[in-house]
Write a structure and sequence with these properties.
The protein is mainly beta. The protein is 13% helix and 44% strand. Strands 10, 11, 12, 15, 17 and 20 form a six-stranded mixed sheet that branches. Strands 1, 3, 6, 7 and 9 form a five-stranded mixed sheet that branches.
């Protein structure tokens, strides 16, 4: 009798626990049909961080950061059967699709643009923006006319100018243009951002803190005459005796280097997108 009571209690507890578990079932996943004669491409609105293929009936890779390529591995014994689930994860969402084999070309899908209704948001810290949102705001900043005209530097036939500074929630968007007035193209080694002392008494006394962009709109390797980009940073501050230095360096041993200094007062005067 005691054992029967224990079993009944366990079953009641288990059923109560099971009722609290919610999620997406396999039957609810979007269905996609492919065959061995076609490749399926998933186009993601953000760079893909992780992909899982649940069975050995498929193989895949990343030809581009926002592109997932899937192919079938052979022909399954039963036509129109499920050959697995593909999971695609970015920084801000997860998407899952159930893949079926079909022998009919008219049913075969070759391209899928991941839609919001097929995604599950991945929680981020309060105030954080997704990569797609950062790109959207960066494009908006790129369309704005130049409002700052006094923050620039010229050296070696190069000119660097900060066009605008914007803020969105916890982010700072810095719009920069580099102009090359020489006939020699500029091969970019790196663009670094540092918080440095405004006045340097001795070279050995330099105090520098490097800050990394969270996002940048373009990633070119070189430019011939002009290059404009939007760099996005998590919100930061620095005292009045320091400046934000933008350092452009060339991909050569004796490469040309250019620095632009942004005062804190210019950062405080940033507009809101």
């Amino acid at each position: 009798m005691k054992n029967l009571i224990l079993i009944t209690t366990f079953l009641v507890s288990f059923n109560s626990l099971a009722q609290t578990i919610t999620g997406t079932t396999q039957k609810e996943l979007p269905k996609i049909y492919i065959n061995e004669n076609a490749t399926l491409h998933f186009i993601s609105p953000e760079d893909v961080e992780y992909t899982d293929i649940s069975t050995e009936h498929m193989q895949g890779d990343f030809p581009m950061p926002n592109l997932v390529r899937i192919r079938t591995e052979g022909v399954p014994e039963n036509p129109f059967q499920s050959i697995g689930i593909v999971t695609i994860v970015s920084k801000s969402f997860m998407a899952q699709y159930e893949i079926f084999y079909t022998s009919r070309a008219e049913n075969t899908v070759t391209r899928i643009v991941i839609q919001q209704e097929h995604t599950l948001p991945i929680e981020t810290a309060p105030g954080d923006l997704s990569e797609a949102e950062l790109k959207g705001f960066a494009l908006t900043a790129y369309k704005q006319k130049q409002r700052m005209h006094a923050v620039y530097s010229t050296q070696y036939g190069l000119t660097g100018a900060i066009n605008n500074v914007f803020t969105v929630d916890n982010y700072i968007f810095i719009d920069i243009t580099f102009t090359n007035k020489t006939n020699i193209k500029y091969d970019i080694d790196q663009i670094r951002f540092k918080i440095e002392d405004k006045k340097i008494v001795k070279a050995t006394n330099v105090q520098s803190i490097e800050v990394e962009p969270t996002f940048q709109l373009y990633e070119p390797e070189y430019f011939k005459k002009k290059f404009r980009n939007i760099y996005v940073f998590k919100k930061f501050t620095y005292p009045n005796n320091k400046v934000l230095t933008v350092e452009l360096s060339e991909d050569q041993i004796s490469g040309r280097t250019l620095k632009i200094n942004l005062d804190y007062s210019d950062l405080l005067a940033a507009d809101t997108l």
